[in-house]
Amino acid sequence: MDPELEAFIPLLPKTDLTDPVTARKSFAERAAARPAPDTADMEIEDRTVPADPDVAVRIYRPRQAQGAIVWLHGGGMVFGDLDTEHPWAARIADGSGAVVISVDYRRAPEHRFPAALDDAYAVLSWTAERAAELGIDPERIAVGGHSAGAGLAAAVALRARAEQGPPIRFQLLNEPGLDDRQETWSQLHFTDTPWHDRDKITTAWRHYLGSAPATPYAAPARAADLSGLPPAYIATAEFDPVRDEGIGYALRLLQAGVSVELHQWPGTFHGSQAILSAEVSQRQIADLAAALRRALTA
Known about the structure:
The chain is α/β, with parallel strands linked by helices.
């Protein structure tokens, strides 16, 4: 474990996903206590995307931005919202120079699959249709997210390919949750890792799927064919149950002819980039933003 991160492990709060309401409240309180990012050089606007039902978004627009990313927060599909994601969406916008459209998708267990996917896809379609109004190039739209949000972004890319939907320039997948089967080496062995462990992941999938069988749109690792998908940046954390499904997805994309940049961060755990004082966390966030900048300006 990275020494700077290890020092924080005893201080990490416990999250009980069996009680979604309490988990959301606790997470929101912790997020509100974090230092606010500097947003002086960007415009921030809350909008509503017409859909069934409508979807709330928060748009971060740096100066002279051309490309955009539809950004999907983490939280196991159970917690997280526009406010808790604000520090990360703002940092991605600032570091990449891209417009970040943060999505307040519906959460489980009140709204199970495919509610979140429908919301995310509606925002992607809206972004492409309103590109001129939003001041972005419709050929420079990416999808991305962290953890469950990264898995959701991968599902959006699969759906856009299948439905010949809006062109996606790039996938930015940070520590993605992609596979409900939990059969990888890291899933079987990392049963008590910091912040994120096997039991929490099992609970999150149960909330998201209910009794319905998983499809590739729910768990993208189940997709048989990954050809024709957008290029991807995939980051994984060393001590993370979802590590190997992220690495496996990257390898399968490569084997399907999709260009991939894979970054495995040594000494880290799931979500440890939130410990902003750690040097490795600062590098993780900077690398995500830099990858997006390269993809949208190439």
